[in-house]
Specification:
By secondary structure, the protein is an alpha+beta fold. Helix content is about 35%, strand content about 40%.
Length: about 150
């Protein structure tokens, strides 16, 4: 969850920049963001003869941002009103700012740890059945090998 206060301002100038009409607002943002791995996209191959499960493709993380914002202290003019384009600009700016915050946060590493944990369950099952789990030609022997082996 992210909370942010920002200001939005736009100015229209007319008559050789002698007259201008400004619109501005204070924007209060409450957003949710998630980093997910869609394991339905996990690709694998099973070699029954050699009792090997080969992981062929591990999906890339998907970042989802769900912004909710409200405008306060709105100042507008008849010649420069708020339009749909302004709301689109505000929404794009919010997503850009949150994307930057997500990159600096621990959200991605937390998702990577969760992926490692989920793939660790696959390792446990293969080991219990006497099979091997492989990725990129490497045999995965313990869960800690997963975080080192998988490019995240």
């Amino acid at each position: 969850n992210y909370t942010q206060v920002m200001t939005y301002q736009d100015q229209q100038k007319y008559l050789l920049n002698l007259v201008s009409f400004t619109k501005k607002a204070v924007v209060i943002v409450n957003a949710k963001a998630t980093v997910e791995y869609d394991l339905t996209q996990l690709q694998y191959q099973i070699d029954e003869e050699h009792k090997v499960v080969q992981l062929l493709h591990i999906p890339e993380p998907e970042i989802h941002i769900y912004p909710d914002y409200k405008l306060y202290d709105v100042e507008t003019s008849t010649f420069n009103p708020f339009t749909g384009a302004d709301y689109n600009k505000i929404n794009a700016k919010i997503k850009e700012d949150l994307q930057r915050k997500i990159e600096q946060s621990s959200l991605k590493s937390n998702a990577e740890n969760r992926l490692t944990s989920e793939l660790g369950k696959l390792l446990v099952v293969t080991n219990m059945l006497g099979w091997r789990l492989e990725y990129q030609g490497n045999t995965i022997k313990k869960e800690s090998d997963l975080s080192v082996t998988f490019p995240m």
